[in-house]
Every structure is written in C-alpha cells, then in structure tokens.
Amino acid sequence: MACDILQSIKIDNNYKSFTDRYFTKRYIIDFNGIKNNDIMIMFHSNRVALLCLAPSHFFFKNNNNYRLNFSVGNIDRLSNTVKGKSKKGGQMLTPKSVICKIDYEDGTSFDVPSCMKSTLIEVNEQLVSDPHLLRKKPDADGFIAILLSSIAISDATKNELLSYEDYVKVIDRLTK
Q1: pTM recorded for the entire structure
Q2: Which residues, other chains included, contact 164 with Cβ-Cβ below 8 Å and sequence gap of 6+?
Q3: What is the pLDDT of residues 47-80, one digit of tens each?
Q4: What are residue 31's phi and psi, to 5 degrees?
Q5: How far apart are CA 25 and CA 50, in angstroms?
C-alpha cells in the first residue's frame, strides 16, 4: 500500500513574516516624555535595526492625510549614502536625532527620533512615494529607517527597551 507523501504532512498556512522570524522587537513608551510617542525598534542579530512606529503610537489614531518629510533642519536624510562593508559615510545619530517629520495636511507635524546612538544606513524611500505603507505595514514594508550600531550599543539598547510581552502589559495597564 503506497502512501502519498503530500497527504502525509500537515501544511500550516500561518507563515511568520521575514521580520517576525529574524528580528527581535523592542519598544519605547512615551519617548521624550510625549504621551503615546511610542517607538518600536526591531533588532537583527547582525546589529542592523529597523526603526518603526509602535502600534500604540498616536499616529495610528489620527486619520488625516500625511506625508513623510526626510528633510530635517539642514540635513536631507534621503541624501544619506553609505559605502562598503563598514558602511562609511552614514549619518551619525544620537537617540534624539530626528529621522523624519510626519506632516499632516492640516499643518501639524511631529518628529520621528532615531531613539538610539547609531549610524543611518538608509531611510525607507518607498514611504516617499507610498506613505500609506507606514499605516498598512508598520513593521514590514512601513519601517522608517535602517540603523546600525556597535555590538555593545545594540545589546545595551535592546536590554534597556521593553520586550513585546512587557510592552503589551504596559499598554494594557495604560488603557484601563
């Protein structure tokens, strides 16, 4: 009696996304003392970090039209160019460095900080042509920037920030 191998395995269609499989999510609540200015940084084991807005960020409660402005002060983050294996030429960032501004059509705006000492590798240029990715897929195609820091800084920052489980507990407590 022959057995069809395809019939013998159970196929699970609940695939984890690339970022869910390879990145560790960490969270900052009320960055810089601003209520619901919540940031998510996703860390890869190779020190690369993706900067995103956390699901609890006040941005997701505002349904006004918006655009991302990567010209902050005298710096155009879109002109950031890195070269080589060591990523020379990347813009140096402090935790309070502004990566971009989110400008609403009503004239209001807010800054998105880097939240960690790092080097800007690149900004997500897809957000310039399709800013709605930020709302639709905030932790996948809607990431804001790619950052790179030293192993020591990356590990220290990761340890200082909230894990997903702790983040959920804090958000649940704040919304009650």
Answers
A1: 0.86
A2: 25, 27
A3: 899 999 999 999 999 999 999 999 998 888 988 8
A4: -55, 135
A5: 9
